[in-house]
Amino acid sequence: MKINVYATESYTTWMVKEPVEIDTDNYPELEGKTEEEIKEYIRENYWDMKSTNDEWFENLGEELEQSDVRRDKIYNEEMSVIFDNE
Question: Quick check: 49 and 60 in contact, CB under 8 A?
């Protein structure tokens, strides 16, 4: 009898990207908000906000996503095996 055995791996990756500095004066939607209100607004709307570099990115979300990785960590690594028909 022959049995195919496959290795499976799973893990969680956590990455911190390089920061993007925004000047709140360039974002009229942030005018009059407290620092906490600004942070909450950005958390909820970064895909809809303009980029700090509109020559390269369509919005702030894309700019953040494309930033270089500053630090990463892999944890919860697991390895197991599976067989055909599983």
Answer: yes
